[in-house]
Design goal:
Structural class: mainly alpha
Helix content: 40-55%
Strand order of the largest sheet: 3-4-5
Strand content: 5-15%
Distance between the termini: 46 Å
Order of helices and strands: EHHEEHEHEHHHH
Largest sheet: 3 strands, parallel
Shape: globular
Mean pLDDT: 92
Low-confidence stretches: none
């Protein structure tokens, strides 16, 4: 993207609906948000050598959703210094290992992409099921099925981390739960 918005008053459901309309219907630029809401500002993307300005503002939640290695260790520290409490990956590995270590070492709740970004893959699987069964589910039915899948992914990551003495470590929980699921499937199929 060409920049980012920061809203000092936060982004509530009404503002989020405005953004969704801007992007999905009007196909506008995110900079228009700052023109519409007085509490917001827009910053054009001008990455510095070690810290992208996007990750140097005060936030409660950060959602890196663009590209691999989007947040490095220095940018993670900048987010921590600015009070971030939750980071949820919405892309494939947008945080470097150094960034993840920084978040975890500073008590930031961190949701790894293999768990929090699984919705897209799950929805593709649901689409393939519909095609295979020659069925047509409503948007609500797909959303309900996706919700169940995402709740189960969260539960598996949380419960697995807790079982192995790492409660709250979603990276560990997602990695081990994923490994166990594949290993169990391979054993069941006689591959091992």
């Amino acid at each position: 993207s060409s920049g980012f918005i920061h809203d000092a008053d936060g982004i509530d459901a009404e503002k989020l609906a405005w953004i969704m309309d801007l992007k999905n219907n009007r196909r506008g630029r995110i900079s228009e948000y700052a023109d519409h809401f007085a509490s917001a500002s827009y910053a054009a993307a001008q990455p510095e050598p070690s810290v992208n300005g996007l990750w140097s503002v005060k936030v409660d939640v950060a959602l890196p959703c663009a590209t691999q290695n989007e947040i490095n260790g220095d940018e993670a520290q900048s987010l921590v210094d600015n009070g971030v409490m939750v980071v949820g990956e919405g892309a494939n590995m947008p945080c470097t290992p150094e960034a993840i270590e920084c978040f975890q070492g500073n008590g930031v709740m961190f949701s790894p992409g293999k768990a929090s970004n699984a919705g897209g893959v799950a929805t593709s699987g649901l689409e393939m099921s519909q095609n295979s069964l020659r069925m047509n589910w409503s948007r609500e039915e797909v959303d309900e099925k996706l919700d169940t899948i995402m709740v189960n992914i969260h539960r598996a990551a949380y419960d697995t981390a807790k079982k192995y003495g790492r409660e709250g470590d979603y990276v560990f929980g997602a990695n081990v739960a994923g490994f166990l699921k594949v290993a169990d499937a391979m054993l069941a199929q006689g591959v091992l």
